Fold this protein.
Amino acid sequence: MTTTLENVDIPTKRRRSVSARQNLMGWLFVGPFGIVFIALLIVPIFYALYLSLFQKSMIGGTRFVLFGNYAKAFTDPSFLDGVWFVIRFSLVLIPLQMAVSLAIALILDIVITRYARFSRLMIFMPYAIPTVIGALMWGFLYSDNFGPLAEIFEAFGQQAPDFLSSSLIFYGLLNIVTWQWAGYYMIIIYAALQGIDPTLYEAARIDGASQWQIVLRIKIPLLTPALLLILVFALIGTLQFFNEPQILQQLAAGAIPNDFTPNMYAYQQAFSLANYNYGATISFALGAVVFVCVYIFLFATRKRGSFTS
């Protein structure tokens, strides 16, 4: 039996045709998302970058200043104070969130009752509540005029702490953000716990390990990739802090200025003062700060865990 060139070419052409058809189908599926992604994310980012390179004034009009706005931003006390605040807030908030979510996930993993699923749902519930509703609810609870906290303290002849005052607003926001996000992080950690091989626990028990030793020596080390992932999420989210202070600003008179966080400062510049060029610059400068912070964190923890392991 002899094989001619025509017999070899036909399967090759067929494979190419099938491959081209599969590629076309792939592009058809990805295409709509790609168009939306480019139109709603890529184009606005490049437009904001373009705006940040110009400066607009009433006398001189619009002029190209290249990085002049960035030089101004990194010497602007309002921007630098806002960055310092979100960094301080991150240093307190992230360990607190991690400790709360890890403790709850470990308890739910150990204590298996018929209420465990209901408990997970209730703990996750704050994350499902819109940020606006959650912040307004806590603003009501904190209020020293009509809030239940003030009434409870008043019943004991005491004055309730004013979490909307300048001295306590840090802790008031800390409580709100922890309440809203701890359940979400708990679900991530709990899912990672379910992926651990149970035979490891059985082997440890046979060797005489206590529950506390299993948690410290097996569970927490194996949770390192999930914990690092949560840390990166929390770090990026906290540095971009905006919703809660912006909503509580009207209730906390004087405690939350317009430059409380970098995002609030960018919002004020763009939408209150119509200074779109400098608002875009603040946004990109904050993006640079977030990038540097996340890079430093990943570099410092590169030997302790991996997102891919």
Q: What stands out?
A: The chain is about 75% helix and 5% strand. The mean pLDDT is 87.
